[in-house]
Specification:
By secondary structure, the protein is mainly alpha-helical. Helix content is about 60%, strand content about 0%.
């Protein structure tokens, strides 16, 4: 079945080419043949580009599989660590509303590079 379809397509293409060759002028025939030859000339470049993209995708997938395997091996090697914190020692608890109102501490600021600058007044 596929051979018959291929044979019909070839016969149709040849018939169309002959009709165009006898009915078109020289300039329009030159344009058509230029377009066809340009497409044919671009096919090898497209084939090489597709091959390179396929190789890159295959290499990238191999790297991802290797990375996932090494990650699962590392996760199997070390048990999970769970840290349970009962609070911070040395700090008094805040009231239920959050910060205690009316109690403000003096802030301590550290200015970096202040001692290097000359003081001018």
């Amino acid at each position: 079945m596929a051979r018959w379809m291929l044979a019909i397509a070839v016969v149709f293409g040849l018939t169309l080419a002959l009709l165009l060759a006898f009915r078109l002028e020289r300039s329009s025939l030159a344009v058509v043949s230029g377009v066809v030859l340009g497409i044919v000339a671009g096919l090898p470049v497209n084939g090489v580009l597709l091959y390179m993209l396929w190789r890159e995708r295959t290499a990238r997938q191999a790297v991802e599989v290797e990375r996932e395997e090494s990650l699962s091996a590392r996760q199997a090697q070390y048990p999970p660590v769970v840290i349970v914190s009962g609070g911070r020692p040395g700090l008094e608890a805040l009231p239920a509303g959050g910060f205690a109102l009316g109690q403000q501490r003096q802030r301590d600021f550290v200015i970096v590079g202040e001692e290097d600058l000359p003081v001018s007044q």
